[in-house]
């Protein structure tokens, strides 16, 4: 199969999805809610997002060049935030 790329068996990206989720969950649990600055201060989170967006040149912003891509990403984000997590928890 010439079109199939060989993948490394090392690193986070090579792990199966359930193992990635397990590791990511541990990272999220390592800091209590009251210590997470964005969870305590939504205005701070919004400002950080704005700063991140401004740090990229307008011509390099894929969403500003492709409104269909932006709409699709927004749609996926909305669907994901309203979907129940298959692991039993709720998302969003």
UniProtKB/TrEMBL annotation:
Compositionally skewed regions (Basic and acidic residues) per UniProt: 16-50, 62-86
Protein origin, superkingdom: Bacteria
Region span, Disordered: 1-92
InterPro entries: Stress-induced_KGG_rpt, Stress/Virulence-Domain
Protein name: Stress-induced protein
Organism from which the protein derives: Alsobacter ponti
Record lineage: Bacteria, Pseudomonadati, Pseudomonadota, Alphaproteobacteria, Hyphomicrobiales
């Amino acid at each position: 199969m010439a079109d199939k790329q060989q993948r490394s068996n090392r690193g986070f990206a090579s792990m199966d999805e359930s193992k990635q989720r397990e590791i990511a969950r541990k990272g999220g649990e390592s800091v209590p809610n009251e210590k997470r600055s964005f969870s305590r201060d939504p205005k701070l989170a919004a400002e950080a997002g704005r700063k991140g967006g401004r740090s990229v040149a307008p011509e390099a912003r894929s969403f500003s060049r492709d409104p269909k891509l932006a709409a699709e990403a927004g749609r996926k984000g909305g669907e994901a935030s309203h979907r129940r997590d298959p692991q039993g928890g709720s998302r969003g």
